[in-house]
């Protein structure tokens, strides 16, 4: 049995952070029932409301995920992404397989991905994140708009 799931039918879980919900609604609105074009998401303009926003796509070889556009956030909860550099350079070593796999799956399926991390200690802080990755139509290939939201951050005891 085969089932078809349209990307626009994706729903966030109850209790998702309000900015994650707002970003998902923005993606749906810009797509008007289809995948929106990446050009409709100006990261430099949107970073005031979504400070941890990026656009990700594949390199020319189709093997490596690259940061195509990166919000100018003061502090990222992981190694700061650098435009036109591989995504793998910013992902914590313990998360590489999961994160890269999730991004590639979202690119292949065209279905958004939502993930809440468990907490970890990062420079004396416990940090929990939520992330949504939504597919968008790039110039040639599907790309991702990815937004992270810090859910909780407090000093470690």
Write a brief caption for the model:
The protein is α+β, with helices and mostly antiparallel strands and 157 residues long. Helix content is 20%, strand content 29%.
Would you write up a description of this structure?
With 157 residues, this protein is of the alpha+beta class. The chain has helices spanning 18-31, 43-46, 96-109; strands at residues 53-58, 65-70, 113-116, 120-122, 125-137, 142-155.
Question: How many alpha or pi helices?
Answer: 3
* Mean pLDDT metric: 87
CA-CA gap between termini: 52 Å
Main sheet attributes: strand count, strand direction, barrel closure: 6 strands, antiparallel
Order of helices and strands: HHEEHEEEE
CA-based shape: globular
Helix content: 10-25%
Instruction: Please give the oligomerization state of what you see.
Output: single chain
The tally of strands reads 6
In terms of DSSP E residues, the strand content is 25-35%
Structural class: alpha+beta
Radius of gyration: 15 Å
Low-confidence stretches: none
List keywords for this structure.
157 residues, alpha+beta, 6-stranded antiparallel beta sheet, 6 strands, globular
Topology:
Blueprint: H1 18-31, H2 43-46, E1 53-58, E2 65-70, H3 96-109, E3 113-116, E4 120-122, E5 125-137, E6 142-155
């Amino acid at each position: 049995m085969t089932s078809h799931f349209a990307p626009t039918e994706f729903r966030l879980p109850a209790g998702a952070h309000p900015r994650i919900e707002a970003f998902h609604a923005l993606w749906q609105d810009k797509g008007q029932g289809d995948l929106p074009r990446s050009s409709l998401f100006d990261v430099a303009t949107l970073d005031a409301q979504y400070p941890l926003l990026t656009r990700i796509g594949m390199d020319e070889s189709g093997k490596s995920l690259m940061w195509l556009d990166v919000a100018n956030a003061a502090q990222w909860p992981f190694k700061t992404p650098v435009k036109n550099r591989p995504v793998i350079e910013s992902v914590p070593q313990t998360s590489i397989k999961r994160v890269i796999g999730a991004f590639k799956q979202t690119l292949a399926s065209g279905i958004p991905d939502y993930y809440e991390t468990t907490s970890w200690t990062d420079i004396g802080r416990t940090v929990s994140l939520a992330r949504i990755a939504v597919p968008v139509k790039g110039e040639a290939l599907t790309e991702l708009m990815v937004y992270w939201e810090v859910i909780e951050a407090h000093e470690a005891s």
